[in-house]
Task: inverse folding
């Protein structure tokens, strides 16, 4: 089991460029999440997908789009990157139910110049 | 009022010390509670779930007080390897049953 994988690990973009962050999990989890983490702000939810075929906005969705491609994959797209989107992005997954551990990917460090 | 609040620290303690972290949450409808650990430049990882009756895992003890909406984590006999940021996490409540809300974390440094 690879768990949750993310690509790329690092990325530098110029303002206005677009890119897609990829996330995949091999644990057959139903729910998947995208977070961003900024110094002093903690983890903030961007979008989540409770199950295959559904996506919902989190706390900070502006400037992002997502696609739940299948049960394994959940991608995050920045259509026109801005310096305010410089952050560390974490993908996570969780099986449905009560006391369930959320498993995180290793993160993508994105810098927008 | 923020949904999940923690003392950011840093807590600087000597090896062998006992240290306690506190966390408060704003919504009484919150359903599940966790402590995560995050090492520098790494992803968060589950340390332990927090049950209503309290639970212990080795040197770590977690307590939940639903009436006061308060969660705690006690670390006994601190080790250098315990140095990390500890995140208080709440599931459900205002954010919805699928969402987890993270505190900003409490930084712990264990000093030789």
Result:
């Amino acid at each position: 089991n690879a768990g949750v994988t993310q690509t790329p690990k690092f990325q530098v973009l110029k303002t206005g460029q677009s890119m897609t962050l990829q996330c995949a999990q091999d644990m057959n989890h139903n729910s998947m999440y995208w977070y961003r983490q900024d110094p002093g702000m903690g983890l903030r939810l961007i979008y989540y997908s409770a199950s295959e075929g559904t996506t919902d906005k989190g706390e900070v969705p502006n400037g992002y789009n997502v696609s739940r491609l299948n049960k394994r994959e959940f991608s995050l797209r920045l259509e026109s990157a801005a310096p305010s989107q410089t952050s560390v992005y974490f993908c996570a997954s969780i099986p449905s139910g009560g006391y369930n551990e959320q498993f995180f990917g290793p993160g993508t460090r994105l810098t927008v110049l | 009022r923020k949904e999940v609040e923690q003392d950011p620290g840093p807590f600087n303690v000597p090896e062998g010390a006992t240290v306690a972290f506190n966390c408060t949450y704003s919504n009484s409808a919150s359903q599940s509670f966790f402590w995560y650990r995050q090492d520098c430049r790494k992803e968060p990882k589950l340390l332990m779930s927090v049950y209503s009756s309290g639970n212990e895992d080795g040197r770590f003890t977690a307590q939940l007080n639903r009436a006061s909406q308060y969660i705690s984590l006690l670390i006994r006999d601190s080790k250098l390897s315990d140095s990390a940021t500890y995140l208080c996490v709440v599931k459900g409540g205002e954010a919805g049953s699928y969402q987890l809300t993270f505190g900003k974390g409490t930084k712990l440094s264990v000093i030789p």
